[in-house]
């Protein structure tokens, strides 16, 4: 049975519980002194990679062996903290693609970096979060699949991989759509992006956190991978959304219609 070599993305973002503030220059959100952690959808991606290994351990006849799980983060030096979390969750080793803290990595640049790493690592499955909660772009997985010319399954809520029919590793992915569930099938290599209901990430135990410190973490730059990360977009201004105004009580339906027509201009 063929084995899996999994590449999983781990982006460092402002923690989901932090109240976001725009910086004084209105060029971005404030990050100084702000708690940051792994993107929640990327935590789900790491968890799914580890679960694929656990399924193979319990039932090797129906699930392919996971040869290696490699966690990747592209960002400043502090991104190594995020990678250590992934290692503590169960990834085997990590790769840190280091960029300057002031550099903004756009989805296309990240996709190109992952393409280079997928080819270098001879990966046959890339699992990414469906989006990062800082830019909410939701583009990297799709761009990566296009660059690699691999099949893709986005917004996965269930993932199964087997090789029982002898035609290579096959995956089935369930994804939630407006009308219910859609099930896709594809032959690996492939790209999968994770949705919220795929799993619930585990907490890293203290022993695993200590073990993670001894696991390998390679460091490289975009130049090492031959990738140009020059931004193609320019952010002109970042502002907070307008504050919501308080509601008003009306005495009757006629008064409501009158206000909607004459004040709100909604009718």
TrEMBL record:
Keyword set includes Cytoplasm: no
CDD domains membership: ETF_beta (cd01714)
Cofactor binding, per record: Binds 1 FAD per dimer.
Compartment(s) of residence: Mitochondrion matrix
Source taxon at top rank: Eukaryota
Cofactor(s) required for function per UniProt: FAD; AMP
Gene Ontology biological process terms from the UniProt entry: amino acid catabolic process; fatty acid beta-oxidation using acyl-CoA dehydrogenase
Keyword Electron transport found: yes
GO MF terms held by the record: electron transfer activity
Residue stretches making up the Electron transfer flavoprotein alpha/beta-subunit N-terminal domain: 26-229
Keywords attached to this entry: Electron transport, Mitochondrion, Transport
A UniProt-annotated Pfam family: ETF
GO cellular component: mitochondrial matrix
Function, as annotated: The electron transfer flavoprotein serves as a specific electron acceptor for several dehydrogenases, including five acyl-CoA dehydrogenases, glutaryl-CoA and sarcosine dehydrogenase. It transfers the electrons to the main mitochondrial respiratory chain via ETF-ubiquinone oxidoreductase (ETF dehydrogenase).
PANTHER family from the UniProt entry: ELECTRON TRANSFER FLAVOPROTEIN BETA-SUBUNIT, ELECTRON TRANSFER FLAVOPROTEIN SUBUNIT BETA
Subunit structure: Heterodimer of an alpha and a beta subunit.
Family: Belongs to the ETF beta-subunit/FixA family.
Protein name, UniProt field: Probable electron transfer flavoprotein subunit beta
Organism: Dimargaris verticillata
Lineage: Eukaryota, Fungi, Fungi incertae sedis, Zoopagomycota, Kickxellomycotina
């Amino acid at each position: 049975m063929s084995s899996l070599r999994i590449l999983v993305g781990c982006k460092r973002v402002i923690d989901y519980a932090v109240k976001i503030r725009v910086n004084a220059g209105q060029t971005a959100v404030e990050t100084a002194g702000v708690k940051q952690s792994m993107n929640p959808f990327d935590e789900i991606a790491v968890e799914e990679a580890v679960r694929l290994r656990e399924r193979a351990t319990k039932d090797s006849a129906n699930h392919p062996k996971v040869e290696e799980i490699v966690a990747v983060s592209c960002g400043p030096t502090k991104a190594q903290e995020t990678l250590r979390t992934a290692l503590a969750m169960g990834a085997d080793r990590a790769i840190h693609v280091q960029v300057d803290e002031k550099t903004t990595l756009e989805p296309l640049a990240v996709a190109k970096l992952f393409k280079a790493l997928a080819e270098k690592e001879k990966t046959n499955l890339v699992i990414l979060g469906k989006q990062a909660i800082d830019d909410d772009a939701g583009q990297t997985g799709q761009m990566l699949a296009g660059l690699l010319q691999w099949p893709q399954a986005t917004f996965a809520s269930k993932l199964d991989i087997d090789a029982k029919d002898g035609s290579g590793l096959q995956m089935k992915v369930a994804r939630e759509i407006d009308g219910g569930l859609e099930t896709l099938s594809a032959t690996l290599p492939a790209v999968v992006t994770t949705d919220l209901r795929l799993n619930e990430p585990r907490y890293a135990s203290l022993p695993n956190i200590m073990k993670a410190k001894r696991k390998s973490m390679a460091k490289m730059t975009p130049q090492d991978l031959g990738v140009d990360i020059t931004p193609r977009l320019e952010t002109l201004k970042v502002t907070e959304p307008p504050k919501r105004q308080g509601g008003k009580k009306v005495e009757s339906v006629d008064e409501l219609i009158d206000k909607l027509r004459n004040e709100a201009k909604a009718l």
